[in-house]
Specification:
This protein is an alpha+beta fold. The chain has a single domain, classed as Cupredoxins -  blue copper proteins (Immunoglobulin-like, Sandwich). Helices cover about 15% and strands about 25% of the residues. It has 3 helices and 9 strands. The strands form 2 sheets. Strands 5-7-8-3-9 form a 5-stranded mixed beta sheet. A 4-stranded mixed beta sheet has the order 2-1-4-6, with no helix packed on it. A hairpin with a 6-residue loop joins strand 1 and strand 2. The radius of gyration is 22 Å and the shape is globular.
């Protein structure tokens, strides 16, 4: 049975309408934070170190350091009894050790300031900060509680992240 000309035109019109008809927005691609380090292990980092995103955005950490394993771990008492440096209502995360070329993702639905660190490299200042939405937080960041000095100095300020949107490692 051959389709009629009318049938072919109806199908073609339906396809064309489907192309121009408004569609629901697809989920945005994850925002990537790269984990890196010098070949000799003398310096390690997250890049970007500061980031502003809207609620519900997914963050993906990718270990591009060929010589080290890293973690992406939220500052939270459930993670090695570290101080709370994410919103109280937010779920803490810990990627566990990521080998080179491995990744870990988390979605952040709660507005606020999220500080995170690499378990084996926190003492070397491998920390980062994500601001979700427009939180009511003091300028400069959460209180410093029992963090290594290098880590404290490595956090970009909330004001700088809000102004620039993204802070690349220096």
């Amino acid at each position: 049975m051959r389709p009629s000309r009318r049938h072919v035109l109806q199908i073609g019109g339906g396809v064309l309408a489907g192309l121009v008809w408004p569609r629901p927005a697809f989920a945005a691609e994850p925002v990537e934070i790269l984990m890196g380090g010098k070949a000799d292990g003398s310096h390690v980092w997250f890049d970007p170190v500061g980031l502003h995103v809207e609620p519900g955005r997914t963050i993906r950490w990718i270990n591009l350091d060929p010589g080290n394993s890293h973690t992406a771990t939220a500052y939270h008492p459930k993670n090695f009894e570290r101080p709370l440096r994410i919103p109280e209502r937010a779920e803490p995360w810990n990627s566990d050790y990521l080998l080179p070329d491995e990744s870990f993702s988390v979605t952040l639905p709660v507005e606020g300031v999220y500080d995170f660190f690499c378990v084996p490299h926190e003492h070397a200042g491998m920390v980062g900060r994500i601001i979700v939405g427009r939180p009511n937080a003091p300028s400069g960041g959460p209180a410093a509680q029992a963090l290594p000095d290098l880590a404290l100095r490595a956090f970009p300020s909330i004001d700088e992240i809000m102004q620039r949107g993204i802070i690349r490692r220096t």
